[in-house]
Amino acid sequence: MNLTVKGRNLALTDAIGAYAEEKLGKLSKYLANGSRCEVELWTEKNPSIADNQVVEVTIFTKGPIIRAREASPDIYASIDLVFAKLERQVKKYRGKLVSRSQGAHKEVLVSEGFNILEESEESEAETSTPRIVKTKQFMVKPMAPEEAALQLELVGHDFFVFTNSETNETAVVYRRRDGNYGLIEAQT
């Protein structure tokens, strides 16, 4: 796996770079040889943010792009947290590949650098694929995006589906991490 470590608003010392490479290099046993990993470390300049040491990792595989971001008061702790999150994601990704493969496909995965192991220790809940457990139907009312944002606040959900009265298309308004709102508009 090709690993690149970059620093932004942070004095990237050799010790921090080596720690990130050592820790995140352990993920290579789960990924194919052609995978690329970009690690970006930075310090938030806002003094009101307690968890100001941020680590963001993006892994480019032959399949999906795997990304994780963690923040804490200590850069080493942030690296540990992001490693734990990525390890879960990569194992889940690898598990899906293994569960989809049958017979001859297993040899293809092994030749691409994936380790196919019997993992009986893992619970079935971790290896099973997500499924739809609840279905809900509701009326989609035409409204402006600003009104939809107000409705989102009233219902207390993470997102709100509505018909945009300006375009007559289905849209979704959602709360972003920074406290603002995002708007997803469907195009037909």
Please name the fourth-level CATH homologous superfamily of the largest domain: Ribosome hibernation promotion factor-like
Annotation, overall tally of beta strands: 8
Give a quick account of the main beta sheet: strands, pairing sense, barrel closure: 4 strands, mixed
Count of discrete structural domains: 2
Strand content: 25-35%
Annotated CATH topology of the largest domain? Double Stranded RNA Binding Domain
Unreliable runs, pLDDT <50, ≥5 residues?
Answer: 102-125
Question: Would you kindly provide a written description of the structure presented here, covering whatever features stand out?
Answer:
- The chain has helices spanning about 15-25, 75-100, 105-110, 125, 145-155; strands at about 1-10, 35-45, 55-60, 65-70, 140-145, 160-165, 170-175, 180-185.
- It has about 190 residues and is of the alpha/beta class.
- The protein folds into two domains: about 1-125, Double Stranded RNA Binding Domain, CATH 3.30.160; about 140-185, SHC Adaptor Protein (2-Layer Sandwich).
- Strands 1-2-3-4 form a four-stranded mixed beta sheet, with helices on one face. The protein has a four-stranded mixed beta sheet with strand order 5-6-7-8, with helices on one face.
- α1 packs parallel to α2 (about 75-100).
